[in-house]
Amino acid sequence: MLAQSAPTVIWYQPLQSVRSAALQRRQEELRAAGFDVATYTEPRSFYPAATKAFLSAHAQGPVLFMISGLESESLAAISRVRMHSGYLPIMIELPEFNEELALHALYSGADDYCVNETSTALWVAKIECLLRRVRLPQDQTEKYPVPAPTSTHPITESKTAQWSLIDDGWTLVCPEGLKLVLTTTERQFLSTLCSQPDRRASHDQLLQSISEKNSPESDAVSGHNRLGVVISRLKRKATSEGLTLPIRSIYKWGYMFGAPIQVL
Predict the structure, then answer these.
(1) What is the pLDDT averaged over residues 103-109?
(2) Is the pTM above the cut of 0.90?
(3) Closest among 65, 11, 4, 67 to 34, alpha carbons compared
(4) In what order do the strands lie in the sheet with 261-263?
């Protein structure tokens, strides 16, 4: 029975006050189906709760993150939760179906989506399907990369937990302090990407930043191929130095840097 496993849904609902009645009804229906639903509307309460879930994942029952809407705060939450947890499932809740927005959420790190107009039975089936991945015996869950406790929450925005571009953009520093010296092209790419609102830039913006002024790309295909090569090489270079870059593709549009970063 579902109620016996007591799975937890940590539901983040930023900027959803106009939909509060509909969301409240859905929460009650999920509770009636056997879920423990904890809701948050502010980042200052959601991110500490998410951190607690990461740190105790090996000791508690199944956990799933539900994030409502596709505002910038919702997408940022998806990216930040995914960056710190590669195994706890994330589901996006949409007021109505929109293929482009659903793809955007999935490429930002969500595992699946639910549409508010669909039945609670379908929601329960989707959540249960995702939770099967983390219902493992105690000895197996120990293999998950659960982060060690620290004095600060790993996903709260603080100067010590952010990436940084320093030395006029020539050096990338990860939250753990590891440094990556950049080439001219890498510097131009990251400086452009990380200086945009929400750290998102279109293919055209990024191509323009890495192209020589007098050498425009002959066609869109070759330009996108070059951009892909630059990003692939940068990720491999970072991996060889012990860094995992949170650069993510945004379907048919561009790229995003999926973590807080300071450009100094």
Answers:
(1) 80
(2) no
(3) 4
(4) 179-181, 171-173, 163-166, 261-263
